[in-house]
Design a protein that fits this description.
The chain is an alpha/beta fold. The chain has 23 helices and 22 strands. The chain has four domains: 136 residues, no CATH class; 107 residues, 3-Layer(aba) Sandwich (Rossmann fold), CATH 3.40.50; 239 residues, Rossmann fold (3-Layer(aba) Sandwich); 47 residues.
């Protein structure tokens, strides 16, 4: 019933509501007359019906002028109730006037009785619909508690009550004066009782609504709650969003239910062993994954955090953020920011030796599929030979742990980026097998929500610009995880990995990108414009698959999967190639990259990566231009040669 009503066109709803109100008012009038005159047959005549018709006509005009049919029933508040009260009162006055004009002989007490029944039928019916809608909606809502019973907490509560995702069932607050009280019907509990309340009320998540509290205190509260096994989300306040302090992107990050599963919680003992008290190096530290790794590593008290990045601006940003985080949280550790390229083997050796690095997280890579597809040599040089360079430096300098950040696109790749990442995995597998003193492993996961170039920031920007939201294909699906989740997986895998292991996350079911776009449009307060809803706000436009893009991604090459110490992390037994073959391929790749031979690079990738099925046409932009130039030069040479041959024949004696 609710779905039928919601699917009705906007123009039809007011007409149906008006018709329903007129029917209810007619019944209210007849019931008032029956009560006053002790029966129905005594008063039925044409004058009475004329009186009723005149009353309904005037009342329709009054209700429309008061805007009763512009109010969305499920959002009906105090002003709507006052409007109903005014409308019913004026309707009762119209009844008294109509009785006088039509000489219907309506008793003077009937308008009063009519007023009572009219208010119950008009106002009560709306209230019942509102309650029914909210009850039906709450069946599918996630039960949450709000930490912070101040202004921001109350604003969040009111917003969530009318939303479709969360149902607030409790408040928590550190202020003792607010504890043991009710705020808008919800009880405020002492945070010390959080575990009992969560268990009693079946609370799935705790939302922090404390924008005025210092960041350090908010992080402390969030960490305490997470240590108790609770899922915590920090939401910016309304004022923060309006003043630009909170980012619109933060809103999309708050809706982690887009994953279709619960985020994977970390195991403390699996993280601390690789980080606490050690010198840790992160390559690609300014990227989405690299920067989140740095943030989380800093919370586990490393002796020294060395961040390496080739982009000066990105390095400046992450260094400044880490310094601020260290100050806010009062954590004591050194941070050193260094410019460097992982392909520079000597530079990497200097850094590793100079700082006595013990753990390396290698996040430096070119990851955007279309860009790498158009820059084949540079992509292979950075992703494959860069990984080889940092691995050789790590092994020669006595590094204990090396973790490669990989991707699901490395599984049966159809693009250069995926093939280069799989080649990098093969190198790591070989090093893990040959050098037992250094624990080498890889972590493979799907798309990361909120990372640079991912669909969430792109879709958010497109919605803010008024659309359209661009989706390549209606059937494209992807696995998704949050940035903190990805970073935690990497940190935990470092302590479990050995001999070139590949770790993957049980990421649940893949998400259809088209569904994700629809969901995000609605989350941001808009409606989808399509054939069923031509008056919608934002349109979804299909642009076609990009070069090297697949309809779906995979996380495993085979079915040989083993469990680990973490229930949501699996160890994959992947196929390897022998060291001699690998060395030959790497030698050829170095020569091909040095000579800028795109065709040769792609041919080597095909030989190294067993299941790589590239596009038939080379997409590298520069190579394509050079091919055109070479073709033109060849044609000019052929024409010149033919011209010379023809001229020689002409000058010869017959």
């Amino acid at each position: 019933m609710t779905r039928i009503w919601l699917n009705l066109k906007k123009a039809h709803k007011p007409a149906l509501m008006l018709a329903f109100d007129m029917l209810m008012l007619s019944l209210a009038f007849l019931l008032a007359m029956a009560i006053r005159l002790n029966g129905v047959s005594e008063f039925l005549d044409w004058q009475l019906f004329a009186c009723l018709a005149l009353t309904l006509g005037v009342t329709s005009f009054i209700f429309l002028r008061l805007g009763l049919y512009r109010t969305i029933i499920r959002y009906m508040g105090q002003k709507a109730i006052i409007a109903v009260l005014q409308g019913v009162t004026l309707s009762a006055g119209a009844l008294a006037l109509a009785s006088y004009l039509t000489t219907a002989g309506v008793p003077r007490s009937v308008p009063v009785i009519y007023w009572c029944f009219a208010f119950i039928s008009v106002g009560g019916s709306r209230w019942l619909v509102r309650i029914y809608y909210q009850t039906a909606l709450e069946i599918h809502k996630t039960r949450v508690a709000i930490y912070g019973a101040g202004t921001a907490g109350l604003q969040m509560y009111k917003a969530l009550v009318h939303g479709q995702l969360y149902k607030p069932v409790a408040f928590f607050d550190d202020n003792t004066s607010k504890q043991m009280t009710f705020i808008d019907g919800l009880f405020v509990y002492n945070p010390a009782d959080v575990l009992d309340v969560v268990a009693d009320k079946d609370i799935a998540e705790v939302l922090l609504a404390m924008p005025g509290v210092p960041r350090r205190r908010r992080r402390e509260i969030a960490r305490t709650l997470r240590e108790r096994g609770l899922l915590v989300k920090a939401i910016p306040g309304v004022e923060e969003l309006l003043n630009g302090v909170g980012d619109a992107e933060d809103i999309s990050k708050a809706y982690e239910n887009i994953l279709g599963r619960e985020p994977v919680e970390p195991k403390r003992d699996l993280i601390s062993g690789s980080i606490s008290g050690k010198v840790v190096l992160v390559t690609g530290a300014g990227g989405s994954i690299g920067s989140e790794l740095c943030r989380q590593i800093s919370q586990w008290e490393p002796a020294h955090l060395v961040v390496v990045e080739s982009s000066e601006y990105a390095l400046y940003q992450i260094e400044r953020e880490l310094m601020q985080q260290r100050q806010d949280e009062g954590v004591q550790f050194e941070v050193t920011a260094l410019l460097g390229d992982v392909r520079d083997n000597e530079r990497m050796k200097e850094i590793i030796t100079g700082f006595s690095v013990r753990t390396i997280y290698h996040a430096a890579a070119y990851k955007h599929v279309p860009l790498v597809e158009q820059n084949v040599v540079t992509g292979a040089d950075n992703n494959v030979l860069g990984t080889l360079s940092i691995l050789e430096a790590a092994e020669s300098c006595g590094v204990e742990q090396f973790v490669l950040i990989s991707t699901d696109k490395a599984v049966r790749p159809t693009n250069v980026m995926g093939a280069t990442k799989r080649f990098a995995e093969l190198i790591c597998q070989d090093f893990g097998r040959r050098f037992s003193k250094m624990r080498v492993c890889m972590v493979r996961f799907g798309n990361v929500i909120g990372s640079s170039g991912s669909v969430i920031p792109l879709f958010t920007a497109q919605v803010n610009a008024g659309g359209p939201v661009t989706v390549t294909h209606p059937k494209v699906t992807r696995y998704f995880m949050t940035i903190p989740e990805a970073a935690q997986l990497v940190l935990q895998a470092g302590n479990m990995g050995q001999n070139g292991d590949v770790f993957v996350l049980d990421m649940g079911e893949p998400v259809r990108i088209y569904d994700l776009a629809e969901r995000l449009i609605r989350i941001m307060g808009h409606s989808v414009k399509d054939e069923e809803n031509p008056d919608g706000d934002i349109e979804i436009s299909l642009t076609g698959l990009r070069p090297g893009e697949k309809l779906y991604e995979e996380l495993l090459l085979g079915d040989n999967v083993l469990g680990t110490e973490h229930p949501m992390i699996m160890r994959a037994e992947e196929e390897r190639i022998d060291s001699r073959t690998l060395q030959v391929l790497l030698g050829e790749l170095k020569w091909a990259c040095k000579s800028r031979d795109c065709e040769k690079v792609r041919e080597i990738l095909c030989r190294a990566v067993k299941d790589y099925t590239p596009r038939k046409k080379m997409a590298d932009v520069v190579w394509g231009r050079l091919e055109v130039e070479r073709s033109c030069t060849q044609r000019e040479g052929d024409v010149r040669a033919l011209s010379l041959v023809g001229g020689g024949d002409a000058n010869r004696a017959p």
